[in-house]
Amino acid sequence: MPTNRRAVVAGAGALALAAAGSRTAISAPIKPLNILILGGTGFTGPHQVAYALSRGHKVTVFNRGRQGNPWPGQVEELLGDRNTGDLKALDGRTWDVCIDNPTTLPFWVRDAGKVLSGHVGQYIFISTISVYASDAAPNQDESAPLAPYKGADPMAETMKSLQADVGNLYGPLKAISEQEAKRQFGTETTIIRPGLIVGPGDETDRFTYWPVRLARGGEVLAPGDGSDPVQFIDARDLAEWTIRMAEARAFGVFNATGPAHSLTTKAMLTTIGEAVHSNAHLNWAPTTFLDAQKVNAWSDMPVWVPGQGDTAGFARRNIDHAHAAGLTYRPLPFTAADTLAWFKSQPPERQAKLKAGLTPEREAEVLAALKSGAQ
User: Fold this and answer.
1) pTM to 2 decimal places
2) Which of 6-20, 230-244, 301-315 has the lowest mean pLDDT?
3) Separation between Cα atoms, residue 344 and residue 336, nearest integer Å
4) How far apart are CA 180 and CA 145, in angstroms?
5) Beta strand 97-100 with 34-38: parallel, antiparallel or unpaired?
6) How confident is the model at residue 72 (pLDDT cuts 50, 70, 90)?
7) Are the CB atoms for 338 and 20 separated by under 8 Å?
8) What is the DSSP track for 56-118?
9) Buried-exposed string 308-322: b where 16+ CB fall within 10 A, e elsewhere
10) How many angstroms separate the CA atoms of 12 and 10, rounded?
């Protein structure tokens, strides 16, 4: 068997990875599709694979083959490396749809286009809500201005060159990648801009912090006064909707975050607490106090950013277009409980230190300062 191609067959038990808790009934699509997924082994990819297989589609994944996955059915795996331009395994092949999950670098899209343009009926590019130039105005839709790239040649950027500045260039490079996708695939392009992706399997802990922290109980530091908005999407909801967008051949640009209704920080933490049977007491800390204590939004207090000023629109993105295209959500308690259960199933060394949020020691220091009336 050639070294750049392998078939993976595994038990059907892993189907639960994508289907458990879904609000969308699994039914046979009108037409089985031949789907190529670039990546497929990260956060959303396995959910896409499992859901696609459950709906009768044929799935091929293309990646470096460094992560094994117990696919719930037969999956063809093609091996290559987009960093080095090794896409030979895709030559001469045709698919109904290509889903591009991991791309941050515009040259990845360019190179994919050289091989796949004219050989796929739809190219779905998974972008990011961070492509926008400003988060100041609430209710901005997909027509809002995009973040400009400030550099010499975006096609020359590599993962190595971005090591020191990936945070600042992530959104602009995704915007350039979107433009390249349209240039390569034209009207057959679908661009999905997810917000914060959450749920079981998230290795960033940017949402996981809250189910874990609230389940631990006790005195919990909470950001702001509870009225700030939050937006995020369960990876399974995003993955399943992406497959349905392929089935519908839906083209265009879509903000993909949630929930369907406005959600405040207080409502989020209260709901998560109830889902994980928490006895925690929330201590709300004003933004000015958190700033003085050098407690940062998003990283130290995950999911949350202030709902005023330059970030007033960050968690108020207009998502009407995605709703009209069939985006649905499982209830927050399901996401919270499933996330906590997943985290508890990880090895002890993984559970020992969350990758986002405050350490218990730092949280105790800040809580003590809050209760003392410090500014």
Assistant:
1) 0.91
2) 6-20
3) 12
4) 17
5) parallel
6) confident
7) yes
8) T-EEEEEE-S-S----SS-EEEEE-BTTTTB-GGGTT--BSEEEE-S--SHHHHHHHHHHHTT
9) eeebbbbbbbbbebb
10) 7
Single-letter amino acid code for the residue at 342: W
Tokens for 139, please give them.
């209710």
pLDDT tens digits, residue range 6-47? 433 332 233 333 333 344 444 554 799 999 999 998 999 999
Q: Calculate helix-pair angle for 332-344, 209-216, nearest 10 degrees.
A: 80
Tokens of 178: 């979107």
Averaged pLDDT of the chain:
90
Helices (H), ranges, the chain: 16-19, 45-54, 106-116, 166-185, 209-216, 235-248, 265-275, 287-292, 320-324, 332-344, 348-351, 360-372
CA–CA gap between residue 205 and residue 198 (Å, rounded):
8
For the chain, the residue count is: 375
What does the CA dihedral 58, 41, 325, 308 come to, rounded to 10 degrees? Answer: 180
What burial class does residue 167 get, using C-beta atoms within 10 Å of its C-beta: 0-12 exposed, 13-18 middle, 19+ buried? exposed
The answer to whether residue 167 scores a pLDDT higher than 70 is: no
Provide the residue type at 201 as one letter: G
Q: Is 32 exposed, middle or buried, given 0-12, 13-18 or 19+ CB atoms closer than 10 A?
A: middle
